[in-house]
Amino acid sequence: MRIKEEIPVFAGIMDITEYIQLVFTDYTLRTITLGTAILGAVTGMLGSFAVLRKQSLLGDAISHAALPGIAIAFLITGAKDSNILLLGALVSGLIGTFWIRGIIKKTHLKSDTALGLILSLFFGFGMLLLTFIQKQPNANQAGLDKYLFGQAATLVESDVWMMTLVTGICFFVLLLFWKEFKILLFDADYTKTLGFNTKFIDVLITTFIVLAIVLGLQTVGVVLMSAMLLAPAAAARQWTNSLGRMVIIAALFGSLSGVFGTAVSASQNNLSTGPVIVIIAGIFVLVSFVFSPSRGLLFKQIRFIKNRRDLQLHKTLSFMYNIVKTHDDISHPHAIKILNNFQGYTKETLQKLVRKNYVHLEGNQWSLTKEGFNTAANLYNQQSKTDE
Amino acid sequence: MSSAQIEIQVIASLVAIACAIPGTFLVLRKMAMISDAISHSILPGIVIGFFITQDLNSPLLILLAAITGIITVVLVEYIQKTGLVKEDTAIGLVFPALFSIGVILIAKNANDVHLDVDAVLLGELAFAPFDRLIIYGVDVGPKSLWIIGCILLTTLGLLSAFFKELKVSTFDAGLAASLGFSPGVIHYGLMSVSSVTTVGAFDAVGAILVVALMIAPAATAYLLTTNLKRMLVYAMCFGVFSAIMGYWLAHILDASIAGSITTILGLIFFVVYLFAPSKGIIAVLFREKQQRTEVFLLTFLLHLKNHNEEGERHVNHLNEHINWQKVRSKTVLDLALKNNMITINNKIVSLTEKGNDFTAQAIDYIITNEDTQIEHMKDDFFLFRG
């Protein structure tokens, strides 16, 4: 049985516990939540590879290129079985992918041109077929255009099972060929010299990326599918430098976007699920970009400021060292005044040096401590040993 | 043909020309996907503009949408500059997000907006003639005709004024910068023109066809010529041709005009991709095959020069020694014989004087690897291709 209407609106039920209860009890909501979560997981997993292989826009091209396949599958069978339509999408997506490769490899057109070309041409052809089908007397044709923007509400249990199956296969293949995928990703030439069949591995991973995209067409739609592939992976990339962890985090981000997206669109009137999921995934990316500890913009800025301060500290210290050097007694006191000509000097840096026990202050006079003298002497010899 | 039909074809042709110009430069500058990003991300600009003006053809709407297009470019460049992700990922992140915002804005206000997401993607060229521009009660033609006409004139004016600058900065950004043309101004100028063209063409032909009309004619033309002016002219011709053919295809099939124009574009590209002289796939494969044969021949000749013992030069043992299959050995042998490079006595192959000279030259080239030496050998190679 197919559910034709949009997700039933649970407006007013903003109580989270109540909503969670509903997820477990309501058939439609449960199916959709599960479906989007699984979809997010598989696209996040495979999206990591797409992002790292610099094939981010391939997802966009493939999802658009899948449209004529859906239309042709419908024209041939005349039925709207989602599995057959997705098979058509898979075939046409693969044709698009390999044509893109052919263009890049055999002509002097660049990859961006090839992507844009296949994307727009296939999509235009698909739209021609869709509008052609719409004029046909077959009453079955209504609702084919849900593949444009996706309609999570049309997910049924069998679709979710299908997704689970494909995700399982993806996961299994990923584990099986983990080493090969990883080595191909980071050093393709080395992989070839080791005797791996790079072409096979390449085709395998690309096929699975196409598969993941096709799987999401029903839920998120042709136009926005590429974001589902990219966003979780791009967000996950910011949190780790290990491929394994990146794949896991991307899968997690993907499913969370699916679950939250479904929740938001269910609680509001007139909100289609696809765009909301994409926005949520976008928020994940934004947060990761800003707050990731090692790569994030915020911490990068903080580190930048801290480095600048350290540099000023070092400059002051080495300036003092140059003065002290001329005296036999290193703890010979000097007037603070003479530091005033120096640019890097502020009261604050002086206080900091005192706190670090590099400098001893007495009235208007300062002197370097033994520790400070040694640090300053070795400042440019052994960096970062005594720095904070 | 009714006047409406003529008008549709004129609009489609003008859109095709207006798109081909920035498209050519986008393809050459490897920024083709930017046009895809712009065509999607101007949606929120259009929706917001529509809320303000309540008119799909108002200039303010075009301005707002064009600004959104520029914002997209700036955002992509900003994200790219942070170094957190690569450029293509940055593009792939920005435009779906903006497009989603647009879709949600439409969906939330579905009741008071006569703006359909399908129409945004596809446009409705068939209805274009019904929206007339009326000045002082006089019907002067469809509105979209005027809009796209103005955009086309501006683009043509800018193109002729800045052709030299565009050309230099496209092919040699470093030279352009050192000559004093600001790369930034040219870059953003091109981006603005692309955005405005996209918006102007948008409501006539929709987001996807804009991309197709920008990239496909330019890419097709690029396979046929390496001259910028010719490429521009070819791209415009392909655009106009597919616009008119596409209209009639749609007429016959009773399907979307935008879709059929794209399909014709696709067909043209496919034919050129297969058959283009020297750059088409067939020409490339043929050339690769020739080069392979040439290399085989050379290997064979070198082998002969290196071995005086008869066992190595026996016709029947050829495939064992150089590890070739039978058929290939025979082809190479015949080719060498035909070019008087070798003689066969008692099934023992030996080099002729000509073959000897040629092989010596080849070794020279291989050792020194100087391009000048290969030049006159190329003529020799040419002889083999009988």
Characterise this structure.
The complex is a heterodimer of chains A (388) and B (386). With 388 residues, chain A is an all-alpha fold. Chain A has 2 domains: 16-295, Orthogonal Bundle (ABC transporter involved in vitamin B12 uptake, BtuC); 298-377, Arc Repressor Mutant, subunit A. Chain A has helices at 16-25, 27-52, 56-65, 67-77, 82-106, 111-134, 146-149, 157-176, 178-186, 188-193, 198-220, 225-237, 243-267, 273-291, 297-325, 347-355, 370-377, and strands at 334-335, 359-362, 365-368. A 3-stranded antiparallel beta sheet of chain A has the order 1-3-2. Mean pLDDT of chain A is 82; it is low at 1-6 and 384-388. Chain B folds into 2 domains: 3-124 and 136-279, Orthogonal Bundle (ABC transporter involved in vitamin B12 uptake, BtuC); 282-384, Arc Repressor Mutant, subunit A. Chain B is elongated. In chain B, 44% of the residues are buried. The model of chain B has no long low-confidence stretch (mean pLDDT 82). The chains are: A mainly alpha (388), B mainly alpha (386). Chains A and B meet through helix 3, helix 5, helix 6, helix 12 and helix 14 of A and helix 2, helix 4, helix 5, helix 8 and helix 10 of B.
